[in-house]
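Standup notes
- DV: blocked on the single-chain target, sequence here:
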Amino acid sequence: MIFPYVLDQLTDLAVIISDLFRSTSMTNRPIENKPRLLDQVRGKLRLKHYSYRTEQSYVAWIKRFIFFHNKQHPDTMGEKEIEAFLTHLAVKRNVAASTQNQALCAILFLYKEVLGRGLPWLDSLQRAKRPARLPVVLTALEVQKLLNQLQERSWPACCMVRVCG
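- DV (later): unblocked, structure below
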């Protein structure tokens, strides 16, 4: 059985080999030693011991970001493009706040760790709103009224649930 991580590395190796043959046989230009952008991202994530699932997620969000801007290299893009992508996620795609936050973390990792560019705080970013969560708690009087409505057989069990939490 081949683990997904090993399979991913073998796939990357196959792509590198095919690129090597393609670049040497079809053109006479020298081969660049610099790895591709997503390979750099994977390398940094592995160097920092991020989990494999985080690596998959970050690479997927970075791909979405690049495709959203018509395959522009992130090095040529800046704060406006990042804000446009994240605002698009919140407004048009109506994603959850945690999903937008994950996309933001992936893009920040790309710019800070891989490209070496610090980003100023994104002030005008429209964040997805977290839903308000109201606790479901009964007052002591409401609990007493509820227990008074119970039949004799179920009363002890409900009292235990109330006491034990």
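- Follow-up: The longest helix spans residues 4-26.
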